[in-house]
Amino acid sequence: MSLSGTGLTLTYGATVALAGASVTVAPGEVVALVGPSGSGKTSLLYCLSGLARPSSGQVLVGDIELTALDDAGLVAVRREHFGFVFQFSELVPELTLAENVALPLELLKAGRRDTRRRVAELLERLGIGDLGGRYPAQVSGGQAQRAAVARALVHRPAVVFADEPTGSLDSANTDTVLSALVELSRDTGSSIVLVTHDDKVATAADRRVFVRDGFCTDEVLSR
Ligand SMILES: Nc1ncnc2c1ncn2[C@@H]1O[C@H](COP(=O)(O)OP(=O)(O)OP(=O)(O)O)[C@@H](O)[C@H]1O
Hints:
The protein is α/β, with parallel strands linked by helices. The chain is built from 8 helices and 9 strands. The chain has a single domain, classed as 3-Layer(aba) Sandwich (Rossmann fold), CATH 3.40.50. A hairpin with a 2-residue loop joins strand 1 (about 5-10) and strand 2 (about 15-25). The model has no long low-confidence stretch (mean pLDDT about 95). The structure holds adenosine-5'-triphosphate. Adenosine-5'-triphosphate binds near residues 12, 15, 37 and 40. Adenosine-5'-triphosphate binds near residues 17, 37, 38, 40 and 41. It holds the Pfam family ABC_tran. It comes from Luteimicrobium xylanilyticum. Keywords: ATP-binding, Nucleotide-binding, Transport.
């Protein structure tokens, strides 16, 4: 599914976070949003993913107009078509890693056996196959972030949104988490929209989109 945002604006009181930003992400494409601090990268990611409503502009996911949906419609699209990875893994502390990874499939009412198989396969591929029974507090930050990547991809979403997914990791864990995210998304055909300050992470993307003063366009980027 392609994803596009057109003419997105977002204001917080007197602060203009987005000033008419436009970006299109092709199916399977990995796009890094880069730019100075406060330029609007996270705001853009939030508007594209339905975590925030733009003040004006349009977001299309395939032929679904995200910006026209009510809250229940937004939740349904996010559950089925999107996956999320944040800077700190934000796993549910009361659930084991395997239970955390299974959550998106359970919300979509997937069968129990398929869920168990898919969760085990992903944990294995991420090198944490033996940690499925542990709770988030019992694993390292890098291991928790790998589980967060598994959770974002378990339901084969159209788009994974990742806000500083390696921002809290050392360089070895950054490499592991980043390559897992990109490789697994190739398998599932998911596109990735990621916000990063790390040049190495941005280089792993198919394309970089420069956000400045709440603005970006695909034309500027392709220069
Ligand atoms: N919840 C909020 N309330 C008020 N202002 C906000 C809020 N979120 C963001 N802003 C403001 O909107 C602008 C864009 O912020 P945003 O977080 O999108 O930038 P960013 O490029 O992701 O920054 P960083 O790289 O520092 O994370 C900034 O001026 C910021 O202070």
